[in-house]
């Protein structure tokens, strides 16, 4: 269900960004305001673009979101305070926490809106490892930094 919701969200996101770009081009006079002059094929081109956006939106959640594992020495409880401090330094706040996991969200509204409220990072602790789940770019950046911060070799 989450995958379907993300796909629909991205379809509307791509459509809105394209509409804003076209509006700006018409506004500055770079193109005429007639759809048949903007796109080859006129209104029939809009359906082709919508189908393309639907295909991209259907695939994007699969490649845009990942789960990454990082090794730790010990348990989540041992590094919890250091991990929370790490996320707070990078603009995230603790949203929810259970015994073995925590979820973090972006602090500011602007960052959350830009990411279409898909800014949640879920950290799940297991013996000897942490699993980070969220947007690929954020998970890669945060997992590398967190791994460096809590790595026993860096102490």
Give your account of this protein's structure.
The protein is α+β, with helices and mostly antiparallel strands. 56% of the residues lie in helices and 21% in strands. The chain has six helices and five strands, in the order H-H-H-E-H-E-E-H-E-E-H. It has helices at residues 2-27, 35-38, 43-64, 76-89, 109-114, 136-150; strands at 65-71, 92-97, 101-106, 121-126, 129-135. The protein has a five-stranded antiparallel beta sheet. A hairpin with a 3-residue loop joins strand 2 (92-97) and strand 3. Helix 1 (2-27) crosses helix 3 (43-64) and helix 4 (76-89) packs across helix 6 (136-150). The protein is elongated and about 65 Å long.
Which key phrases capture this entry?
155 residues; elongated; alpha+beta; single chain; 6 helices
How much β-strand is present in the residues? 15-25%
Structural class: alpha+beta
Number of strand segments: 5
> CA-to-CA gap between the ends?
42 Å
- Indicate the overall shape: elongated
Count of DSSP H/I helices: 6
User: What is the overall pLDDT average?
Assistant: 89
Which residues form runs of ≥5 with pLDDT under 50? Answer: none
Rounded to an integer in angstroms, the radius of gyration calculated over CA atoms is: 21 Å
Secondary-structure element sequence? HHHEHEEHEEH
- Multimeric state of these chains? single chain
**Order of strands across the biggest sheet?**
1-5-4-3-2
Helix content: 55-70%
Summarize the main sheet.
Answer: 5 strands, antiparallel
């Amino acid at each position: 269900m989450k995958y379907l919701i993300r796909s629909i969200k991205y379809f509307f996101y791509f459509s809105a960004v394209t509409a804003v770009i076209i509006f700006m081009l018409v506004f500055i006079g770079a193109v005429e305001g007639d759809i048949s002059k903007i796109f080859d094929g006129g209104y029939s081109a809009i359906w082709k673009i919508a189908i393309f956006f639907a295909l991209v939106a259907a695939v994007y959640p699969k490649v845009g979101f990942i789960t990454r594992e990082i090794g730790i020495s010990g348990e989540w409880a041992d590094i919890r305070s250091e991990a929370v401090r790490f996320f707070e330094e990078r603009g995230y706040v603790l949203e929810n926490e259970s015994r073995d996991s925590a979820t973090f969200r972006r602090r500011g509204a602007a960052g959350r809106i830009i990411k279409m409220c898909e800014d949640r990072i879920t950290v799940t602790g297991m013996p000897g490892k942490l699993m980070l789940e969220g947007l690929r770019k954020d998970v890669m950046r945060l997992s590398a930094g967190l791994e460096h911060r809590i790595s026993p070799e860096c102490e």
